[in-house]
Design a protein that fits this description.
Elements (H helix, E strand, L loop, with lengths): L8 E7 L4 H4 L13 H13 L7 E5 L2 H11 L6 E4 L15 H15 L4 H6 L9 H18 L4 E6 L1 H10 L11 E13 L4 E11 L1
Parallel strand pairs: 1-4, 2-3, 2-4
Antiparallel strand pairs: 1-5, 5-6
Helix pairs in contact: 2-3, 6-7
């Protein structure tokens, strides 16, 4: 329950714009790909929506695609972009750089295995020793958000990150049921506005969920 809003940090979680690998359906994870012209346009459109927001700090995944997104949104605001590995996309290990079709074909039997488990077990399930589970991704992302929120009470902070991080966050905080976004996506340059006191999260606006 919200009590004293003035003590809450307002976080804007923004997914990076479309990249060349997004366009060509290639798994990125910790690898990177540059924004396409459409990706730049998407971020500029989001920047226009957030034009009235005065950010007190800007954080970004250390992936160049997220940093480029933060640079576009900050416009002429004189703020340094602080980067963090905890805001990175999920680690896909040996699947990074391979086609999405190849990835889904390789883990098809594991998806079926995962679906037979309890929700708690599914959060811990990984498709490979060099891949992060849903829980590992969500937990390290939330650790960073809590640190940011605790450091910036009564401030507004931009966080440029990735679709997987945002989807896991929305499920981990029970904004949607676990698994509900597994078959969908979070749009490039979409964003979530959330209040946090460094412990709890209150999701106020979600702009970017897309189902297929």
């Amino acid at each position: 329950m919200e009590e004293n809003k003035k003590d809450y940090c307002t976080l804007y979680l923004v997914r990076h714009g479309e990249t060349e690998w997004n366009k060509n359906h290639v798994v990125m994870g910790h690898m990177d790909s540059s924004l396409t012209p459409e990706g730049v346009r998407q971020v500029k459109a989001t920047s226009e929506k957030l034009r009235h927001i005065k950010f007190d700090a800007i954080f970004s995944s250390d992936s160049p695609r997220a940093q480029r997104t933060a640079e576009i949104i900050k416009l002429d605001q004189e703020l340094a972009i602080q980067t963090s590995k905890l805001l990175r996309e999920r680690k896909y290990g040996h699947f990074e750089g391979k086609s999405s079709a190849e990835f889904h074909e390789a883990v098809k039997h594991l998806i079926e295995e995962k679906e037979k488990l309890t929700e708690q077990e599914q959060w811990k399930f990984s498709f490979g020793k060099d891949m992060e589970s849903d829980g590992e991704l969500a937990d390290r992302f939330i650790i960073q958000l809590r640190e940011i929120a605790a450091s910036y009470p009564n401030k507004t902070v931009l966080v440029a990150t990735h679709g997987g991080c945002i989807r896991m966050f929305l499920m981990r905080t029970d904004y949607v049921k676990y698994g509900e976004l597994q078959g969908g996506t979070f749009q490039n340059a979409g964003y979530v506005r959330v209040l946090s006191d460094g412990v709890n999260f209150f999701i106020k606006e979600v702009n970017g969920i897309e189902y297929h």
